[in-house]
Design goal:
Length: 314
């Protein structure tokens, strides 16, 4: 049995949330440079893609990790229990310290296939997927989910179902699938969720996600809710890539990170032909809150290569 990474984290610990199209191997290295969280998560990988001959190469590309983004948890999604078992068997050899099952993604395309947050509507299948993953790996298996599908009150039945399986950790995004990110996170429910965890599976690490801006905000929440083990920061990283530190980023520091991001992209692209377009989504992280920032961003959005971006920045 391998060491359980969840038992070797500080209290509280901070995690960079898995975000599709954001927390790839390149951006994780940028955040590691700015100020690393206690734990990284990958973007989520489709278990059925990994199980297919046609999709495995793409799945393995999504599961690439670097020396700087560890310890790291692989997040996976799908609805086929056998495919969860297959990918779980492989992840330890790929260098991961744990596997996390995505039962909370609100993306319509993901939900149409029965994956992500749609698992909330098929709890028996969710349990089967979890059990298949757990029995086929020595890695700790955790879950990330939402309060429910439509109503926040659904958390009682849904989280009870999950906690009865005793996951190594449970991350709760404090909104429903229907709410997306349109309403404030339901922090008022934290005491009840803590109570539920303590009653059913006290060994499960409880992580809170939703509207957490930075380390300081997480520590304030920890003062109020000391029984929460960890806090996961997602969109807060767009406001401040130094969110896992006590530093206030300067314009020069942000520009240094942008150049690092461009360098890492170029190096990665030597062996992986990836599109330039998604890189543009990151520019707003580094180019903001100074005179002329919006004009500079607009020019960068009109570029078609890293070379053109560098020319604009000069």
């Amino acid at each position: 049995m391998r060491m359980n990474i969840w038992e070797n984290l500080p209290h509280p610990f901070l995690i960079l949330a898995p975000m599709e199209g954001v927390t790839d191997i390149i951006f994780r290295q940028v955040i590691a440079k700015a100020g690393r969280p206690d734990l990284f998560f990958t973007e989520f990988t489709n278990v059925s893609s990994y199980a297919s001959e046609k999709g495995r190469a793409n799945a393995l590309e999504r599961l690439e990790i670097s020396k700087t983004d560890q310890p790291i948890i692989a997040q996976v999604w799908g609805k086929n229990p056998e495919h969860f078992a297959e990918i779980a068997r492989a992840l330890e050899k790929l260098g991961f310290q744990g596997v996390d099952l995505n039962f909370g993604c609100p993306d319509k395309n993901v939900n149409k296939t029965g994956g992500g947050a749609a698992m909330i509507k098929t709890p028996d299948l969710a349990v089967e997927c979890f059990r298949n993953a757990k029995k086929n790996t020595d890695l700790p298996v955790s879950i990330k989910t939402r309060l429910g599908w439509k109503a926040p009150e659904e958390y009682r039945e849904w989280l009870t179902t999950l906690l009865n399986e005793h996951p190594a950790a449970l991350t709760v995004h404090l909104r429903t699938k229907k709410e997306m990110s349109k309403v404030p996170a339901h922090y008022e429910l934290i005491p009840e969720i803590v109570k539920l965890r303590s009653q059913i599976s006290p060994e499960t690490k409880l992580i809170i996600n939703g509207d957490i801006k930075d380390k300081q905000h997480a520590l304030e929440l920890h003062q109020k809710y000391p029984e929460v083990d960890g806090f996961m920061i997602g969109r807060g990283v767009f406001g401040n890539p130094y969110c896992f530190t006590d530093h206030t980023p300067t314009r020069n520091k942000l520009m240094d990170l942008l150049y690092l991001h461009l360098n890492l992209y170029e190096n990665y692209n030597k062996n992986h032909k990836i599109s330039y377009e998604p890189l543009k989504h990151f520019y707003k992280i580094y180019i903001n809150n100074f005179p002329g920032a919006s004009d500079l961003r607009a020019k960068l959005m009109d570029t078609h290569s890293v070379k053109e971006a560098r020319d604009v920045l000069k």
